Each structure stands twice: as C-alpha cells, then as structure tokens.
Amino acid sequence: MRRAYLSTLLALLITGPALAAPKTDVAKVVNSAAFKAAAATLAAEHDRTVADIITLTEIPAPPFKEAERAKAYRAMFEAHGLRNVEIDPEGNVLGLRKGTRAGPVVVVSAHLDTVFPEGTNVKVRREGTKLYAPGIADDSRSLAVLLAWSRALDAAKIKTRSDILFVGTVGEEGAGDLRGVRYFFGKGAYKDNTKAFYSVDGIDPAHITHIGVGSKRYRVTFKGPGGHSYGAFGIVNPMAAMGKAVADLYAIQPPTDPKVTYSASVVGGGTSVNSIPDKVFVEFDMRSADAAELAKLEAQFKAVIEGAVVAENKARSTRVGAVSAEFTPIGDRPAGATPKDAAIVANTIAAIEAFGGKPTFEASSTDANAPMGRGIPAITIGSGGTGGRAHSIDEWIDVEPTASVRGMTIGLAAILATAGVD
Amino acid sequence: MRRAYLSTLLALLITGPALAAPKTDVAKVVNSAAFKAAAATLAAEHDRTVADIITLTEIPAPPFKEAERAKAYRAMFEAHGLRNVEIDPEGNVLGLRKGTRAGPVVVVSAHLDTVFPEGTNVKVRREGTKLYAPGIADDSRSLAVLLAWSRALDAAKIKTRSDILFVGTVGEEGAGDLRGVRYFFGKGAYKDNTKAFYSVDGIDPAHITHIGVGSKRYRVTFKGPGGHSYGAFGIVNPMAAMGKAVADLYAIQPPTDPKVTYSASVVGGGTSVNSIPDKVFVEFDMRSADAAELAKLEAQFKAVIEGAVVAENKARSTRVGAVSAEFTPIGDRPAGATPKDAAIVANTIAAIEAFGGKPTFEASSTDANAPMGRGIPAITIGSGGTGGRAHSIDEWIDVEPTASVRGMTIGLAAILATAGVD
Questions:
Q1: Could you point out which of A258, A325, B11, B244 has its C-alpha 20 to 30 Å from the C-alpha of B108?
Q2: pLDDT over 90 at A130, yes or no
Q3: What is the value of ipTM here, to two decimals?
Q4: How many CB pairs under 8 A join A and B?
Q5: Residue A171 CB partners (closer than 8 Å, separation 6+)
C-alpha cells in the first residue's frame, strides 16, 4: 500500500456537504460505553499487539511464499475464537465474527505478503518505540491490528449487525498482482456476499484511499546471439539495448496531475563476465489513477523499448543474429474508485474527525482495487501510529502507544459504523 | 584459453627472416633416434593418454575448487617419477624432471580448473573417436599430455639440459584471474628461476599464442535509497544510472587496431517490480593486447560510470539519498607479448613446420600472460588433435590417434629444443 495524491480530476467524485447520517452513526458508536470499553482494551493490550506485530513480521512471507505466515495467522484466528476459519485455495486466511443479522459481510483485510525475497533478514530491531524490519509497516502491523480489533470487540461484548469477515490476503504486492483478493471476488465463497471492503494497509489513520491506482507491469526480455566478450566483440549486445531503453524511459517526464509514474525495478541476466549475454530482462511498473494517461505512458514505454532494439541492431553487427525484445505482461490492475459519499468513506471521514484528525484522500494500488472494479464499496485505511521507508530494508514503524492506539481506535470506529451496531 | 586475431601493430614484433638457429635446434631434436623413440612411445601409449584424459576430466574442478583434481594429479606426477612433487600454497601441482645442467627451468604447464560450476555433469561420453565432456578440451586433455610427454622422455632416456618443471595450475579461467600462475611468479620457489614458459591450453598444435591480451574486469554496484515505485516516484533510481552507463559505454568506438574490446556481461538487482531498487550491479570486461589502449578504455569506462551517477543525481530527487557507484575489481590480467624471434617462439614455429604444419599467431588471455608481463619468454600452445565448443557443455575433443599424436609430437619437439638436449 502506498500514499498518493488526490488528482483534481478525482476531486469531482466528492459530493457534499451532507455526511450527516454517517456522522450520526459514528457518533453513536464512539459515544457508546461498549466502544469505550473496546478502545480501553486496545490500549490495555497494546503490548500484546506489538508482540503480535513482531511475531508476524519475523515469519518470512516473500511473494508467492506466504504459506508459513498464513498457517500462523490461521492459528491466531482460531485462538481468537473466529468462526469458519480457513485457508482458501488461493492461500488467503479467512475468519468470521458473526453479526446479529443475516446479510452480506463487511470484510476487514490486511495482506500477508511482503515485497522481500526469500533470505531477506526479517528480524525486528527495536530502538526505543521504533521497530525496524522489512515488511513491518507494509503490512505486518495491520495483520496484528485485525487481531487486536477482534479481541477488543469480544472484550467489550460488541455485537455488530453485519458479520465481520477478517481476511489475510496473499499476493497484494508486485507480481502477486492482487491474486488473493482477485480470487476472493472471483471464486471465493463471499464473492457475491460482500457489503463493504476495508483493506488495512499502511500506517497513517488519516489516510483514506478511495481511488484505486491502475498499473501495467511488464517483464521485458532482451535477446541476442551472445558470444565471447573479446572474440565476438562488435556484435549486438542485448544489454546495450536494455541500457538505452532504461535511460530513454527515464527521460520521459510524465504528468504530475494526474500522477503518472514508472519504474525500472528488477533486472537480471548474463552468463559470465567474459561473455556477451544472450539474454537480459528488466521488470517495469507503470501506474496512474487516470486510465487514459496510463495507456499513453504504456505506448511511450513500448516505443522506447522498440526504439532501443532498432538502435542496437543499427549500432553493432547482426551477422550472428539480431537483438529483439519480448514483452511479458506480469501485472494489470484496474483503476477504480469509491465515491466520497459512499457510506464506507463517509463513516471513515467521520471516525477520523471524531478523534480530532483531518482526513486526506489518497490514490493507490491496493487490494481495494479489486472490489472497486466490481462496484463494491471499498477503501484502504492505515492501521495507526507512524512509519516509513516501506519496500526498503530500512522499513520502520513507531509503536509509541498514544498514536498507535489512536489509529487503531479510529479504524475500529469506522468499521463498526459500517457494520452497524445493535 | 581462446583464439584471437593478430593485430598489425603486433606484427611489428616479428623479425625475420632469420630463425636459422632454432630450425637447426629443432632439426637436431627431431632427427635424433631418441626423439623418434619418444614419439613412438607417444603413439604406443596413446590409449593410456586417452584414459588419463577421461580420468582427469571426470574429476570436477570448478573455479576455486580444483583441490580434488590437484590431489589426483599430484599422485600421477609421483607415479611418473617426477621429483620434488608438491602442491604449492595456492594449489598448483609441481613436479620436476631434472636436466643435466644447473640453471633456470623450462616450465610446461596446463591448467587444472574449468569454467563449469559445481554440480555440472562431467561424465565423458564417447562417440567413436570423439569424447564429449565439459572441460575436456580446456584443459583436461593438456594435463594428460604433460604426463605422456614425461613417460615418452623417460622411455627414450632423453636428458634435457634445463630441468623441465611440469605444472598443473589453478585459477586460469574467469574469476580465477590467473591466481595459480600469479602465485608461481609472485611468490613461488621458481619465480626468479624460469627460463621459458609453455602453457599447454587448447587443442590446435599449429596455434602459437605469443600475445597476451590484457583484461580489466569490474563489478560496478549502483546504489541508491530505493523506495516505492509509485509513492517514491521522482527519487533517484540506481537502475537509471546503470542504464545510462551501459548505453554511454556502448557509444564508445574503441580502436580496432590494436583491438580493444568491452562488454557489459552480467547484470542483476532489484527488490520487486513495485520497488525502486536500492542496488543493481553490472559486470564489465575490457580487453586489449595494448596496455596503453586498455588503460585509456578503463579511464573512459570509469568516467562513463561516474558521469551517469552525476546525471542521475541531477535528473531526480536525492531527498532520501543519492545514487553512487562502487567499483569492485574482479579481474586484472596484464597484457604482454613474447617477440616472434624469441627462441621459444622460433623453436615452436620450427617444430610445427618440421611436421608439415603452418603456424598461426594468436592473441589470447592465458596463463602465459603472467610470465609475459615479467619479461619471461612465454607462449601458449595446443595439445594436439581437434576439438571445439570450449566453455559450453557440448565441449568435445577428437582423439583419433594420427592427429592427436602428431600434435603431441610437435609440442614435445618444441619443448626439447627450448630446454636443450645433450
């Protein structure tokens, strides 16, 4: 999950000034004795939540290898007394907290996977109230917060109208391409039975991501004949085409409003230092909440790659073969949005304001993209506290209790208003 | 060992037409009854030589892991009655055949290591007279030929004037960076006591490699802060610096005479498709037989890398950190040459011609580079027969006896002329 800006285009989605009803719903929730008891539990059990964050962070969950963390999370769901606990065929962990009425569920999810490959050191390092570890902000903290909410609701004996389905999803990041949440809404048992969808992803409790940034991702493989670095010098080198393609892509100045981004992210290939490679690849990521701008960038990107291939085949000899580029799509996330006057957004705005916060509206690419694409009310919220450097090995969160618990309390208030409380 | 061309510049090293004296030396050798007896032994024991080739080929000798093959080779040296047999501290196997006069030794070496990693199937497959296995041509055949020469000299009771030091070297290939022969001439017992150096590496007995192509190799690691591909878009990307560096390097037009080459060969790095990488590396190879031109290219290369880093830090934000490049030398082979009128070359030309061959002059990067760099007469010769596809898993040799024995006979004649025979 990642912060973003709100484009002026998307601001058109805002309708106002209404929001009276949700404010009332949230006010009713936060003023109740039961909610105060739940909030007190969040505070009283904060150390346990921190311990859960550390436990979950230290179970590696590389892309496509979330199984070990999923098993541990399922055991935690079971220990928390959730019902119908299961790991679905895609690998998502599901656990139900029953409500008082029949009807569609409110999903509260966080993602199990990290961006970090196998072998990354995921040991948590603590400095005062700051915890450092890859994946700790994105999204291990949120997994632990779901458990804290479940305990707080039980301790306060809160009965929601709708069932709350807690979910740990797989494949939110990168090449995972939302596979967990895609399965959930494509083939899962609740696919036609979801009232609202909260993705808890990231930190800042004042962020409401109601715009799903679309993305296009490609692995481009540059191929050539290869040969001896000395004996075959002068023939085309796919690495040279790759270098030019990356350099030329980075000369593109995309619009900032709507925000459009690209990244040359992962690279690999080659045989040995004394061989002209026969193959190198690069993985590229392109994003925008604006589908037309994203399509424009994608076309520019393809032209850059193809231009670099043509240039390489002109610059050096093709006597033993030419350079070519092969595009393999590795990600295609739909852009989408949940209107600001949808109850899920209005409730969350009200909850943030109820605790003195000032909501900011974000565009991002998260699990919420999938339900947005199906017209299901969905947003992504932060789990509380502060943190930073997500997707880097210096990733950190601050578990200083006041800010941490305040964020958790805001999220719980919003969810309860959406699920309804008897 | 690898073939290359002879630049016109280097042709200046040729002096002629002389060569009378070496022709006489070689003529004296090849016309002697003792040499004919030695040649007859090479032919008679050819099956044993083939068996030794297979035995040695099937002992894996990956880069830096030649110890098992070295032990077997030491045992073979001992069984052949060589003196002062030892494995030196670097891992080279040494065995002396005493001559009749005091003075510096003539080294006859082959390399123990292959380019193939651990786990490569090195089982020899035979089809008629063709033997297939990784490393069989480069350079296991030569190791066995050294043994055959030792037996032939003993059988013919040939006494050389100079001692002949047979050597199996480690680390000739790739990252080994000539570590065996460097040790031999840097710290070994014979470092100041070597008269001439034959590297027996490869197959064709008409090839005389008297030009040592120098190389400089670097792993360049581009580092940056890394971050989220969307959230942190706009910060510097080490991949962009890498791309520009590769593209700019490939815009350099090096001289063709003397030949100067470069290659961007191996690349890797990155965290995930949705992360700006914090680190990518490229391995570069640069070569020339002309040390001044190689140094010039190396300076251009470094300027290109540094320029790309500066450009990237100007093109994008360094607010969370700047891009840098770290140079790790991974290879540094001295350029060198042995003049064509040096006795070692002239003797070898004469030996090839004495058996009806037509010498070709090669430039390459082999163990002979090290003594050339110290002004010690040194060349690389083939061990006989035919073969091909070195450095590939389809590597092969043909042990059809006529061509195989002819090549061994040529090499022995050249070595004897250089060592002198009473």
A1: B11
A2: yes
A3: 0.75
A4: 222
A5: A63, A64, A66, A90, A91, A111, A113, A177, A178, A179, A180, A181, A182
CB contact under 8 A, B267 and A271: no
Q: Within an 8 Å CB–CB cutoff, is residue A228 touching chain B? A: yes
Beta carbons of B417 and B377 less than 8 angstroms apart: no
DSSP string, B9-20: HHHTT---S--H
Q: How far are the Cα atoms of A131, A393, B34, B349 from residue B28, in angstroms, in the given order?
A: 82, 72, 11, 15
- State whether B167 and B36 are in the same domain: yes
User: Which CATH number is B20's domain given?
Assistant: 3.40.630.10
Q: In this complex, do A266 and B250 lie within 8 Å of one another by their Cβ atoms? A: no
B245/A contact by beta carbon, under 8 A: yes
Contact between chains at B274 and A262 (C-beta distance less than 8 A): no
> Which residues form the domain of B129?
2-212+335-419
Chain A interface includes B227 (CB < 8 A): yes
Nearest to B221 by CA among B307, B175, B284: B284
The verdict on A294 and A374 lying in the same domain is no
Among A289, A310, A333, where does a domain finish?
Answer: A333
Contact B274 A284 (CB under 8 A): no
Q: CB distance B2–A228 less than 8 Å?
A: yes
Chain A residues closer than 8 Å to B282 by CB = 239
A203: closest CA among A367, A417, A407?
A407
Query: Chain B contact for A246, CB < 8 A?
Result: yes
Element housing B96 (H / E): strand B93-97
Q: How many domains does chain B have?
A: 2
Give me the amino acid identity at B47: D
Among A116, A229, A267, select the one facing B265 at the smallest CB separation. A229
- Between CA A255 and CA A261, with CA A258 as vertex, the angle to 5 degrees is 60
Domain shared by B276 and B339, yes or no: no
What tokens were used for A77?
Answer: 């769901």
Residues in chain B with pLDDT < 50?
Answer: 1-20
Q: How confident is the model at residue A228 (pLDDT cuts 50, 70, 90)?
A: confident
pLDDT tops 50 at residue A7:
no
**Which one of A333, A353, A387 terminates a domain?**
A333
Nearest to A239 among B2, B267, B365 (CB): B267
Q: Among residues B305, B377, B312, B384, which one has the least CA distance to residue B339?
A: B377
Which residues in chain A are contacts of B246 at CB distance < 8 A? 239-240, 242-244
Same domain, A355 and A410: yes
Same domain membership, residue B294 and residue B379: no
CA atoms within 13 Å, Cβ hemisphere of B319? 8
Sign of the torsion angle spanned by Cα atoms A158, A160, A163, A168:
negative
The tokens describing B343, both together, are 């006795």
